[in-house]
Amino acid sequence: MSGLIRKSFDAPEETRPFVGGTGQLQMVNLDGAPVGRATFQPGWRWSEHVKPIAKTDSCQAAHLAYVVSGRIKVVMDDGEEMEFGPGDLAQMAPGHDAWTLGDEPCVLVDWQGYADYAKP
Fold this sequence. Notes:
- This protein has helices at 46-49, 51-54, and strands at residues 14-17, 23-30, 33-40, 63-69, 71-76, 81-84, 89-92, 96-101, 106-110.
- The chain has a single domain (14-110), classed as Jelly Rolls.
- The protein has a 6-stranded antiparallel beta sheet with strand order 1-2-3-9-4-7, with no helix packed on it.
- The protein is mostly beta strands.
- Helix content is 7%, strand content 43%.
């Protein structure tokens, strides 16, 4: 095993598109640890564009993410809500909906919740 590993989202090992062309998830694996970069286009909403893939009532992935650009709003099943923007670190428990805010794509890098996200 090498002491150094380099991967790039410019050459992802897997790309998963969202319903309706509203974005995509690009995946790389760092020594068995998946890391994903999601691009959510304006108008993207989990309950409309990933729910048909996940087949759950709300997102059941736990996320530990960094917001690179754009804005996203997350609403938990119990009604708690928060907005995240560039430079924010976000921790989200399972059981939420989310959507982009504004007219700029939202880009997130996630170290925890994308292994099975948007995967049929």
